[in-house]
Amino acid sequence: MQSNEREARIACQSDIGKHRKNNEDAAFCASSQYGTLLLVCDGIGGHRKGEVASALIIDSLAIPFQSLHRHLSLRGMRHFSRKNLKKANRTIYKMSLSGEEFREMGSTAVGAFVGEKKTFFFSVGDSRAYAYSKEKGLTRVTKDQTYVQFLFDSGRITKDQMANHPQKNLLLNAVGINPDLSDVEEIPVDTDSFDAVLLCSDGLYNMVPDATIADVLSEEGRTTKEKAKKLIDLALEAGGNDNIAVSLMERSV
44, 50 in Cβ contact below 8 A? Predict the structure, then answer.
């Protein structure tokens, strides 16, 4: 889903991958005179409709964004994300109690609300936000809310052990799994501190090294849409073990 590009160059795409029966990943990007919104969600629950959860989160944020009639301050961006994520959480949680078909469904959510001067990142789960600049390269903005990240932070495992840990996919947080949404990571940054923002699901970053992602973002001969597609293609070429989603914005600087 993508609107007309204005001041930002945007692209978003998701792919089922090579080994899944359905695509539970969802990506959104849109720009208006009031800013840019990027989203990536990775549904959980498998046959219990993880794809429904990810789509609900996208709609809960995308629809009000497209109805904005004014610029938002950093405080306004924070209020926007909190209000609409909590709304999505309530809807998904109630659905999860409605029957076996939807039991235990939920989704990760990572987003970036990019304003002229400030950008507000928010994250639940293990989908990631990266910032890229020509000077600093690729920098991860968000921290995974996973069991292996907890083990690493507490000094129980090393960084090398994280990649192959048997519980590397165990989430500690997701939208819709509890009645109330808590522990949403929120990171405000200056918009002029980056040249590009990339949001992605683990289907990308588990298959494509950060250095390769940075190489794609640094290429001057590709359009934003071509870079997003290239990232998807690289994940597929590496095995495509999971659904893949990317949402990319490049600033016109």
Answer: yes
